[in-house]
Design a protein that fits this description.
Helices cover 68% and strands 0% of the residues. It has 94 residues and is mainly alpha-helical. The longest helix has 25 residues. The termini are far apart. The protein binds heme C. Heme C binds next to α3 and α4.
């Protein structure tokens, strides 16, 4: 096998990996920011008003409030709820 054939194979392999890459990323559990975007961002384009609605208080207080609120509020991906709670807690840490 000459070197240009080897290069061709490597290039083909890279092309295949490039196609697999994005699909593998989607299958992974998304980062917390993405969890919020997917679960809430469709309706809430302005994140600030969501964050403002969360009362100040200890981490435990805010967690309670967020979990109680979300239990009666729509979420586009219920399986992302735990990550969304973490995201909102991080964003409201003052
Ligand atoms: C199907 C659309 C929809 C989805 C999905 C959605 N919301 Fe809402 N949310 C609304 C609407 C509409 C209001 C305004 C309701 C009102 O003012 O009475 C609202 C209000 C709120 C409020 C009160 C503050 C405000 O802006 O009035 C908070 C906090 C909130 N949403 C958080 C969330 C979170 C967190 C998620 C994701 C888990 C989420 N929402 C997903 C539609 C949605």
């Amino acid at each position: 096998m000459n070197s240009s054939a080897a290069f061709g194979k490597a290039a083909a392999l890279f092309a295949v990996l490039a196609m697999i890459g994005p699909a593998a990323t989607i299958a992974q559990i998304p980062a917390e920011t993405e969890a919020y975007q997917r679960g809430c961002g469709g309706c809430h384009t302005r994140e600030r008003s969501v964050l403002r609605a969360i009362p100040t208080g200890s981490e435990a207080d805010r967690r309670n409030w967020i979990e109680r609120f979300m239990s009666t509020h729509p979420c586009e991906h219920d399986n992302l709820k735990p990550q969304i709670v973490e995201y909102l807690l991080t964003k409201t840490r003052r």
